[in-house]
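User: What would this chain look like folded?
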Amino acid sequence: MAVKDVKFPRNENTEFITELRLRVNKYFKDNGISKYGDWRLYTKTAALLALYFVPYSLIMFQVSDNIAVKFLLWLLFGLGLAGLGLSVMHDAVHGAYSSNKKINNFFANVMVIIGGSKFTWNVQHNQKHHSYTNVDGIDEDIDPGIIMRFSPHKKRYGIHRLQHLYAWFFYGIMTVSWSTEKDFRQLFRYRKEGAFKDHKTPFSTVFVKIFLSKVVFHTITLVLPLIVLSDPWELIVLYNLSMHFIAGLVMACVFQPAHVMPEKVFPLPDDKGSMENNWAIHQLLTTANFSPNSRILYWYVGGLTHQIEHHLFPNICHIHYKELSKIVKKTSEEFGLPYHVQPNFITALKHHTRMLKMLGKFDTLPVLG
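Assistant: Here's the prediction, encoded as structure tokens.
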């Protein structure tokens, strides 16, 4: 079923989201603060840009001959790449970094140095994932292909019995695919789906921009190191892959425990394309938080330990999520709605692993007690 054919009921059970929005707006008004970023976001942006460029510079200036030190610098480079994606680019693409569209657009272009495409990310993430979270056939975050099964509505294959073991490897190489061929596959698919009908920029221009962005990214991360560094090319490629692996693993381990979890549901529209619940309740049913008290993790992953707040208010900067979570949790409980939180990151990963096991073992998920 196409995206345009799936609808959420707009006039049913709207009391929750109406009340929640009133309370959130009151919070900002009473405290006299903006919904966008402030000095906390700006200092974080500088810190994460440093985490990206400082290790890279040390690598290129070959400050050490020690292989262990070199691998450490490439891993730090990968952490900087992931951090920029989670904390800077993510808010900017949602229009939450600043009230100024030009500033949002500028920082959204961080995509170029982390290997992605602003256009395809907007379609996949902002339009599909955020609107139709965990809806099979639309949300591409739960459709990684045959090798893994993230939805109970997908066909189960024998190899999926082992996916809780091998998933981590594929998470680690996620950015290799993302920075090479995935954006192009998505671009051609989105054209077939009509993404360019009302888009101001023609397909050919977007294609060229994506191609050039890939050239820039791979020139920075692979071509220049191959030219400049004195290490054997095989070792440089291994360095590069280690950078990709840590970045991909970090990003996957932040996004997957928010949705592919035993307590989350995977709703489908009825024959007429109507979803059972309105959009806000749908987000509560399909999204979870973790590590609510970890300041370091909250800082590094751009507040995405609080995915519920992000899904309900994607246009609000992540620096506010921790305070908003108190309002969202209280309001959800008052209306008898679920608000799922895992106490820490390790527990969240354990629950995600459990879900992978269940999806690999059962065609239909068992009812949990």
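Residues 51 and 80 are 5 Å apart (CA to CA). If you want, I can go into more detail on any region.
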